[in-house]
Amino acid sequence: MKVKTLPIQERPRERLIRLGKDALSLVELLAILLGSGTKKRSVIELSQALLSHFGSLLRLSRASLQELCEVKGIGKAKALQLQAVFAIAHRIEEKEEGIRFEEKEKLYSLLQRELGTKHVEELMVLLIDAKKKVFHFEIIAKGTLTELLLHPREVFHLAIYHRAHSIVIAHNHPSGDPTPSIRDLEMTRILFNAGKVIGIELLDHLIVGNTSCVSLREKL
To answer: Do residues 141 and 154 touch, judged by C-beta distance below 8 A?
Structure first.
């Protein structure tokens, strides 16, 4: 679909201005970054092609110049633009990566900043290496004000793809109260068991409130 055929209020840039960055999908954010498409592909279609080709945002961010240019419609200029933006993002993220799972205050501080002020439930997966250090974190699902729908395969897909040793998951309660619900506890048990089968341990499931985090592992 051509961006120009969309109603003005539904175009990525206008949605960013009106709703803020958190309301936009990865495709829309990439479309704004790329700026334009080609004669045969709209910028939206080009963004979708990039994500489909690389499979995840993490893999896209680590792609070489040659790998980016393999996607039809991505020339050298757009590839360099993507690499520059991801390089900046990686330098920001470097300060957060390397946090050890045992460093609870640093971990909670990261989660509080990333999830503590969100108005809908969001689920974050943190990938952990063999030394119990975070090497990547990413939002993988967004829900309603009161419910986040997910399946174990969605939680472990990123970890399997990037060969994580273990994972931590976290989601926020928009109400600000991190007290776990019955559903939170049931979901955690399912994911702990799934991790045992897969061979990727779920170290903890953390619920983020306005001012604190609650560990569900301690409650099982």
So the answer is: yes
Alpha helices (H) along 55-130: 57-61, 65-69, 76-93, 104-115
Residue 124, beta-bridge partner list: 139, 170
Is residue 6 pLDDT above 80, yes or no? no
Task: Indicate the pTM of the whole model.
Answer: 0.59
Q: Any idea which fold 104-219 has?
A: Cytidine Deaminase; domain 2 (3.40.140)
Q: What is the pLDDT of residues 152-196, one digit of tens each?
A: 888 898 899 889 999 999 999 988 899 998 988 998 999 999 999
Closest CA to 134 of 172, 79, 93: 93
Residues near 175 by beta carbon (within 8 Å), at least 6 away in sequence: 209
Tokens read off for 86: 């991801």
Candidate CATH numbers 1.50.40.10, 1.20.1440.20, 1.10.3720.10, 1.10.150.20; the one for domain 3-93: 1.10.150.20
Q: How many CA atoms lie within 13 A of 197 on its CB side?
A: 9
CB 193 within 8 A of CB 207: no
For residue 165, give the nearest of 89, 92, 101, 96 by alpha carbon.
101
For residue 65, give the 3-state DSSP assignment: helix
Confidence of residue 21 (pLDDT cuts 50, 70, 90): confident
Q: What's the chain's Rg over C-alpha atoms?
A: 19
